[in-house]
Amino acid sequence: MSDTIAEPTEETAFLELHKKFIAANKPDPALLPVQEAALSRFETLGFPHSKHEMYTFVNTKNLAATPFAVSNPSSSIPEKIISDHTCSGSETSCMVFVNGVFSASLSSLKAIESSVKISTGIDNEDADRIIATLKNENDVFACLANAFCTEATVIEISDNTQVPVPVQVLFVSTGGTSAPSMHSPRLVWKVGELAEVKVIEKNVGAQAGYFNNSAQDWMIAEGAGVVLTQVQSDPFETWNFSKTRVNLKRNARFHSANSSTGSVLVRHHFEGRLEEEGAELILNGVSVLGGKEQVHNFVRIHHEAPQCASRQHFKNVINDEGRSSFDGTVIVNQGAQLTSSDQLINNLMLSNNGHADNKPNLMIFADDVKCTHGATIGQIDEEQMFYLQTRGLTKKAAKELLTKGFAESIIQTIQFPEVVAELNNTLLKKLETKNV
Amino acid sequence: MLEIKDLHAGVDGNEIVKGISLSINKGEIHAIMGPNGSGKSTLAKILSGHPAYETTGGTITFEGKDLLEMDAEERSIAGIFMGFQYPVEVPGVNNAEFLRMAHNARRVSAGEEEIDPLDFDELLSEKMKMLGMEKKYKERNLNDGFSGGEKKKNEILQMAILEPKLSILDETDSGLDIDALRIVAEGVNKLRSENNALILITHYQRLLDYIKPDFVHVLSKGKIIKSGDKELALELESQGYDWVTSAN
After folding, report:
1. Fewest Cβ atoms nearer than 10 Å: which of A7, A389, B10, B206?
2. Residue A435 pLDDT greater than 50, yes or no
3. Domain assignments of chain B as residue spans, ordered by start
4. Has residue B241 got a pLDDT over 90?
């Protein structure tokens, strides 16, 4: 036995935290093999540093230096936070998660009682499937999300079911503890054949000081359609990471729009697999950043079958010292002929100190496909500004209009008026900072 | 209304306008013609307040106020409208919404309340009808993907909505086919009154077949080398610019 005491590393800090987590939360026993597999994969991968290709643009130093505490899922939350963030139309179809754990008592599910089955536990089949994916999981934080989930919430929509109202998922983090708390909502969506559902997911915090690290699997059966709107509107001193894995069967559709308003670090990882012919995946995103906020989107789309389509369009508005980054790869497998795929990232820089990194990639192993990719970084067009000013608009009004106009093509894909209004307000607020 | 005295101006340190003096009164139409590079568009840019263009000498007053001291938006509010040679495309900005904002900017500065959106829609429909414009222009984004003719029509629509005292139309006829030219010109004629004035900047005489100017000025190498009535434009058309430029 060595008498040398090893320097504590980021890995050991998270492993120690995991022990505390198990003791404090007593997670669902069915999840234990999943957690073991996730932790083992985490140990193999190690805590990422900036030299790690997946984290080139993401500064994890700050995260590594933060001693996290285990979240308390039974923390009370201000009542108003739920009513304030419930979208109209989802008042009786809102699933509330407090510090990563589903709260049946705070949720209102009357409108979807008969169309959506929600259970807080996974069966062996699910566990085996998740363990199999973890073996190839290269995202350290996705591993941590699986290791630190208290329970997995399985949401099932049976074949031929059209969910009558949008389902809202509200992730509420309480924050405010002496050490920032870490929690991991774990959701598994099973959308049956020819089923249709619209989902609005919102991430909010009562107070700052938490790390919300979620993982979601979307298994979408033949002919089914999902419209997902993800909204991140946490307070600044927070970390919000998400891993969204989407598996699409024949003719299935997954259309998502992501809106991020930034925090210390927001990171979204999308992994899409178009497994059978005719599947369609749309990922749109808009980030509005000010101060020192950072948003990173990491996308991997696998075209595994012929005749599938994927579209990605991300737009970032960057003011002050905001930082946006995008790392996306579309992989077209051998045999995935007649694939149609687009990937575009546009950045609007409103300050000299902002930062935008873009890495659009294509890997094509088929010979009859149509794929595009590209990225732009630009500033407000002076001629457009002048044109609007000659029509009597002040410089401020012209800048607001042009910035809103830049983000408009993504914002208009969001189907929830409250989300659109909130995003526009945030955008205007961030424009009001020192650079205008 | 507008007094230009010995104006010298240019861009990037190059003097392009070299001493222009011009006086424009209410109800008048002035055509400024000239070969390429004579300084026509520079004059238009200076009048509209483009930040890249610099005045190096002379004065411009509009209704007694020093125009050169005013920003582009102040000039617009004061009643000056610039019809662009190349109207700028602004994706993501809805045409009707933009027009309402521009209309309201003027109302608010005049101490009036903003117009009710429904009332504005009615006003917009009326003006569009006058210009023979289809309803789709309301839904589209500002000049985004518009053809050359559509852009010019949209400029005249803005002019109709803003009801300026002085309009400067910079090569509004360029790039238009004869049908589009006639529609644009008819629109401009409908907006004429005894209280407003118009400066038409053009390279070709044909626009003046539709909009009859009171005065024609020929610009060459940054100076007005000849002024006259509409007959001057016809002579220019038949004899070419060499006729006046070589004589000077």
Report:
1. A7
2. no
3. 2-247
4. no
- How many Å lie between the alpha carbon of A409 and the closest alpha carbon of chain B? 6
Encode pLDDT of B89-111 as tens digits. Answer: 999 999 999 999 999 998 998 89
Question: Check: CATH 3.40.50.300 for B2-247?
Answer: yes
Cβ separation A383–B88 shorter than 8 A: yes
For residue range B66-84, what is the model confidence (pLDDT) as tens digits? 999 999 999 999 999 999 9
Q: Which residues of chain B are within 8 Å of residue A407 when distances are taken between CB atoms?
A: 92
Tell how many helices (H) and how many strands (E) occur in chain A.
Answer: 9, 21
Structure tokens at B61: 């007053």
ipTM: 0.93
Give the domain ranges of chain A.
10-276
Does any CB of chain A come closer than 8 Å to the CB of residue B156? no
Q: What is the pLDDT of residues B121-160, one digit of tens each?
A: 999 999 998 888 888 888 899 999 988 888 988 999 999 9
Kindly state whether B13 is in contact with chain A, defined as any CB-CB distance less than 8 angstroms.
Answer: no
Q: How far apart are CA A146 and CA A34, in angstroms?
A: 7
Q: Report chain A residues touching chain B, CB-CB < 8 A.
A: 381-384, 386-395, 397, 401-402, 404-409
Return d(Cα A387, Cα A384) in angstroms, integer. 5
B92 interaction partners in chain A (CB closer than 8 Å): 404-409
- B91–A409 CB contact, under 8 Å: yes
Is the separation of the CB atoms in A174 and A212 below 8 Å?
no
Neighbours of B73 (CB within 10 A): 23
**Spatial separation of the C-alpha atoms in residues B19 and B31, rounded to whole Å:** 18
In the sheet that holds B14-24, the strands lie side by side as B14-24, B2-11, B53-62, B65-66
Q: How many CB atoms lie within 10 A of CB A401?
A: 23
The answer to whether B83 contacts chain A (CB < 8 Å) is no
The structure tokens listed for B7 are 């104006």
Q: Is B165 on the interface with A (CB under 8 A)?
A: no
Phi, psi (degrees; rounded to nearest 5) at B54 = -120, 135
User: Which among B50, B88, B106 is the nearest to A392, CB-wise?
Assistant: B106
CA A49 to CA A61: how far, in whole Å?
A: 7
Token couple for B115: 């117009």
Q: How many other CB atoms sit within 10 Å of the CB of residue A83?
A: 10
Is residue B231 within 8 A of residue B200, CB to CB? The reply is no
**Could you tell me the pTM of the whole model?**
0.87
Residue A10, H or E segment: helix A10-25
Candidates A395, A397, A405; nearest CB to B90 = A405
Name, in order, each residue with C-beta under 8 angstroms of B158's C-beta and a sequence gap of 6 or more: A391, B81, B83, B99, B102
Of A384, A392, A409, the CB nearest to B73: A392
> Nearest to residue A431, comparing CAs of A356, A360, A351?
A351
Helix axes A140-147, A32-45, angle to 10 degrees: 150
Question: At a CB cut-off of 8 Å and minimum separation 6, what does B239 contact?
Answer: none
Q: How far is CA A169 from the centre of its chain?
A: 13
d(CA A113, CA A329): 39
